[in-house]
Write a structure and sequence with these properties.
The chain is of the alpha/beta class. It contains 11 helices and 14 strands. Strand 11, helix 8 (229-235) and strand 12 form a beta-alpha-beta unit. It is elongated, with a radius of gyration of 20 Å. Residues 1-13 and 23-37 have low confidence and may be disordered. Bound molecules: zinc ion. Zinc ion binds next to loops. This is GTP cyclohydrolase 1 type 2 homolog.
Length: 297
């Protein structure tokens, strides 16, 4: 309870905070009891759900994307929002944390209803959605729009954290190129870049040293974009960074003489949703907590 009071006091000051939760210990977060806000009119520390959703849809230009999932409001909860939780994936652990935090809305990068998945609400899908509906918590999800956005997107946020200068898109000529390319502030060896990624992301990357030359020009695409390695090779960069790796990626890197780093799908995609949560806290005066559910991949 004391920890919770401290957290709430801190959040009232900054209205945005970080929580790191290991996958099995999320219940350590103490409960915050609060009334349902269905019939409450918004004040200076809350906003109507539809206003918040319209703001995000328009900010991220979500209607412009052909995506693998619906972008925007996926599950409707309370009509008024005063507290939001953000996280990478709407897993059961994150959903439970949002309910326990008393969130009105959960904002994620990986939501539900992916193309090709079975439609019936059974198994873990039923449990996750039931928890959100029972808690009256909305689910707001942005996938590609939150990878690509030029200020809040995962790719530009990763560059900011790593100190990389952005020169352009990984796919020249595509205004909505998902990945980016650019330059390091100063050339680094492959080992030195691996160490920096490990320090910044809190997780050691897998590094395939396709050559031993220093890295100055770099391309990157957060998430599972190992399939884009050839786009990076076509740009002539020294290194390509993404979240995941496949068996052929190693040979492609070696045979083309490029450094390849798999720095974690989850680890590289924390920062877009967190930046959007901070923006919403600032824009509407609402409380925001980023909840990091540990994921080694
Ligand atoms: Zn992803």
């Amino acid at each position: 309870m004391i920890a919770d009071l401290v957290c709430r006091a801190l959040s009232l000051k900054s209205r945005s905070r970080d929580l790191r939760i290991q996958s099995n210990s999320y219940r350590e977060i103490t409960m915050t009891d609060r009334p349902a806000l269905d019939h409450v009119t918004p004040d200076q520390h809350s906003v109507e759900l539809r206003v918040l959703v319209d703001y995000c849809d328009s900010l991220l230009d979500s209607a412009a994307y052909q995506d693998y999932c619906p972008n925007g409001l996926q599950i409707e909860g309370r009509a008024v929002v005063s507290r939001i939780v953000t996280g990478v994936t709407a897993s059961q652990a994150l959903v439970d944390a949002a309910v326990e935090q008393g969130a009105d809305l959960l904002l994620v990068h990986h939501g539900y209803f992916w193309k090709g998945e079975p439609a019936p609400l059974t198994g873990i899908k039923q449990k996750r959605i039931k928890t959100l509906l029972a808690g009256n918590v909305s689910l707001l999800a942005y996938h590609l729009p939150l990878d690509v956005h030029s200020e809040l997107g995962n790719n530009v946020q990763l560059a900011k954290l790593m100190g990389w200068r952005v020169a352009g898109g990984l796919e020249p000529g595509n205004p909505r190129s998902i990945g980016l390319h650019g330059e390091l502030a100063e050339a680094l060896s492959g080992d030195a870049l691996a160490k920096q990624l490990s320090r910044v992301l809190g997780r050691p990357p897998l590094h395939v040293a396709g050559n031993d030359r220093p890295i100055k020009r770099i391309a990157w695409c957060t998430g599972a974009a190992q399939g884009y390695i050839e786009k990076a090779i076509a740009l002539g960069v020294d290194a390509y960074v993404t979240g995941e790796v496949s068996e052929p990626t190693v040979h492609i890197a070696r045979e083309n003489g490029i450094h390849f780093f798999a720095a974690g799908h989850h680890a590289t995609e924390r920062y877009g949703v967190k930046a959007l949560g901070e923006r919403l806290a600032q824009q509407f005066g609402i409380e925001h907590a980023f909840v990091d559910i540990d994921n080694p991949v």
